[in-house]
Amino acid sequence: MIKMKQTIQEALHWASLFLKEHGREEKVAEIILMDLLAVSRLEFLMRLPEELSVSDGTRFKDLIQTHATTGVPVQHLTGKETFYERSFNVTKDTLVPRQETEELVYYLLEKLAKRPELTDVVDVGTGTGILAITLALENDALNLTAVDISEAALAVAAMNAKKLQADVAFCHSDFLQALKEENHQVDVIVSNPPYIPYSDLEKLQDTVKNFDPHLALFSEEDGLYSYRQIITQAKDVLRPHGLLAFEIGYNQARAVTALIKEAFPHAVIETKQDMFGKDRMVFADVCV
């Protein structure tokens, strides 16, 4: 139990033990406490011997107990997550950004640097806007459009774009349908779509299955429905010699490659692994 008066270090020690007892990651304590105190990691370490106010101690205890006993993600408690060294707002209406997705951005930027003629990019299923916003900020030659079927997610993404001063256009759309209807063509389609089969629901951690929006997680047809829709619509939206860039499930490379080949027989397709050595990204240079 947290004492009424304690140092920051004492509060951190209590929280770490409490989280460990409940099978949660101990580092969550530091993340929550740094956010509560609004300090950098260096400032946090320097202030460890200082006394924690009663109000901050009470709030910290409540947040730790909530996370430990319910599994609510720490990002929902703090309302933000870091992606590509930038802070993004996160809500219950958006998927919590994953570290692996940073690799999709990195490799796509690498490819676009070699093909500067590809400037018009659409991010399908933008969620918090991490892909579109990061691409826009990392390469100011790009014209970004971000689409999502969730108006609540689009509102979060627009808020993030405004906060980070990123020039991104937002559009409510079921995959690429709105662009298709407007005859809007692009050079690049990038997406981290829902790709988890519903059959995997019970295998997921409670922090994911109970709190991330299922609309952003799960897909029909063994997780391939989203890819099938995007790739089919891409035939009307993607310009000749354009580029497809997908995040995928670790066991979906062959199936996604087959879907691309079916729609674009002459595409040059590359699968890349993530930091854990798992298939995680598929890139396709499309020759129409």
Task: Give a written overview of the molecule.
It is a single chain. The chain is 46% helix and 21% strand. The protein has 288 residues and is of the alpha/beta class. The protein has 2 domains: 6-70; 80-285, 3-Layer(aba) Sandwich (Rossmann fold). The strands form 4 sheets. Strands 7-6-5-8-11-13-12 form a 7-stranded mixed β-sheet, sandwiched between helices. Helix 1 (8-21) crosses helix 2 and helix 6 crosses helix 7. The relative contact order is 0.10. Residues 10-79 form the Release factor glutamine methyltransferase N-terminal domain.
CA-atom Rg in angstroms: 21 Å
Strand tally is: 13
Q: Report strand order across the widest sheet.
A: 7-6-5-8-11-13-12
Give the overall average pLDDT: 88
CATH topology of the largest domain: Rossmann fold
- Kindly report how far apart the N and C termini lie: 65 Å
Please state the second-level CATH architecture of the largest domain.
3-Layer(aba) Sandwich
Determine and state the CATH class of the largest domain. Answer: Alpha Beta
In the CATH hierarchy, what is the superfamily of the largest domain? Vaccinia Virus protein VP39
**Coarse morphology:** elongated
Query: Which residue ranges are poorly predicted, with pLDDT under 50 across at least 5 consecutive positions?
Result: 207-212, 214-218
Give the fraction of residues assigned to helices. 40-55%
Tally of distinct domains: 2
Summarize the helix and strand pattern as letters.
Answer: EHHHEHHEEHEHEHEHEEHHEHHEHEE
Largest sheet: 7 strands, mixed
In what range is the share of β-strand residues? 15-25%
